Here is the input.
Amino acid sequence: MHGRTLTNTAAGLAAAALFLGAAACAGGTGGRDEKGRKAAACVQGTYAWTGVVREQRLTGLADPITLEKGTDSVSGVIRPLKGVTYKPHVTSTAPGVRAADAIKALGRHLGTEEPLGGPSESAEPEKTPTHFDYDVGDLTGSYYAWNSVGLVEADFTYTCRGGAAKPVRGHVVTWETVGGGFLSCGDHVPEDPFRKTDVAARAAARKLCPAGSRAAQSA
Here is the structure.
């Protein structure tokens, strides 16, 4: 959450009045007016989407977990991967095209249940390690734990209503979910919701599971 502090209101209003008066007397505003008209004309355009990719990306790993004796619970730390950063953003900037609007439009196009990560979201992974604590019954053998982000990328063409300006092209990077998992190396790597082998889980299994385990072999 971002707070906003207002101080010295009377002085602020006076300064604003002086600024507006100076602006009214200044010349050369035609360029700004023209940009404003173009932006207003383009505010209700339409998006066309191509090259949409939805994929779980690995953002953090725990140390390899080996339980020699049966136990009911296990806990540990997942450390963020170095050099890996995902931040919701839009590469194209043009009158009438805002990053938040483009990301919301992509969410509507995909029919996501929850809003996609917006430009105000902090980057993933978080800089600090996260703790996990699983209580899932009789645990024994090798396990792997990881954090991931459900990344979404797409290209778009934004067309102004009535063809008021040339179409604008751009690229969106955002995410649907932030999560992770804890699985046994004795099982095959599972599929993700799109019936593909979970890319993040597969990468974690390759790094953390014994070479001959089912998880490592199916990764």
